[in-house]
Amino acid sequence: MGGGIVGLACAWELRRRGLSVTLIERGRPGRESTWAAAGVIAAHHYGAGPGPLFDLLRRSLAAYPEFLENVGADEVDWCSDGMLAVARTADESAELTARVSWLTEAGYEAELLTPWELRTLEPLCTGRVETAALFPADGSLDPRLLAADLESAVRSVGVEVRTDAKATSIETDGSRVTGVDLVDEIVATPAVVLAAGAWCASLAPGFRLPVRPCKGQMCAVRAEGPRRSVNFPEGVIVPRAGGRVALGATQEDVGFDAHIDADAIRQVHRDAAAIVPGLANAEIVETWMGFRPQSADGFPVIGPTPVEGLVVATGHFTKGIALAPVTAELVADLICDGRLDPLLRPFGPDRFA
Ligand SMILES: Cc1cc2nc3c(=O)[nH]c(=O)nc-3n(C[C@H](O)[C@H](O)[C@H](O)COP(=O)(O)OP(=O)(O)OC[C@H]3O[C@@H](n4cnc5c(N)ncnc54)[C@H](O)[C@@H]3O)c2cc1C
Q1: How many domains is the chain partitioned into structurally?
Q2: Residue 125 C-alpha to ligand 1 middle, in angstroms?
């Protein structure tokens, strides 16, 4: 249930392992949070530390090249030249230095750069910066292109894709899944993956699934961008094909308010231009927003539920594009082999019971 990056990747993997799969999407696949994402594929972020999420991300990043190859996604603007992060204040510098240190200790490639070294690597990054870092294992892609390729891939391997099909509830016989209710029809099935992103909470039959939307607004400008994505505490700059640069993003707790606010977009543009000054006068060619699925503790919710046959895969928050390959693999392990990978233990919905 749900045709975002998570539902699409799960459908692909389950079909690959021989199951008969139907993807139920209330609109068109890949048009919600997945459509809105910047597309950074990184195993860490501002303020993050080592722990289960880093371990999950790391495994997903390692799986990414093969995942893209398997699904035939060869034109998704994949940039594997690494990601940069910049710090502009003493506090931000301390955070970045600490991050580089724990990542290096964990055996993850990370290198501190002076402002001069940053400019040598990315001559457009001439804004005032105290410290920078290069993370060679991180990258970026265009999530819209990936979702389109994934949709073609799942169709080509025989997944039945039901679009404009809104699921209203998950049917059970009291203890296990029996089907999905589509208002005028029930799709009978012994297994369901609930992957409806920020809309999952109301679809959980009889257990707590505290996931809410976190609104993110972004824009794209027509300009020459840096070669790699550049991350900073307020957002990110991501080069896209066709002379566009994606700039983002806000994080707003405003429910499902889809309004795009000109002031918020101006701020996103200003923040990016403080690092790449050449973006300041660039024309904004597109604005958009999306609802990240954010759980009560900010971590993904992936795992079995009290309802036999029902697996949840949501709450990916700011990392759903990066986490798609590992989510699909571990969800398929659960459904096909009944195997709960130890990596998933901290992420089960039972933590909210
Ligand atoms: C501005 C922004 C920037 C981001 N940047 C990044 C980034 O750089 N890197 C990264 O890894 N992640 C990023 N993310 C996060 C990422 O987009 C999400 O974590 C990811 O897309 C979640 O995927 P999903 O499939 O769970 O949800 P979605 O893509 O939202 O898909 C859920 C799907 O379920 C469908 N659905 C809902 N209810 C029903 C129903 N009742 N019946 C049938 N279908 C239903 C919806 O129509 C939708 O298609 C960003 C998000 C935003 C908003």
Answers
A1: 1
A2: 30
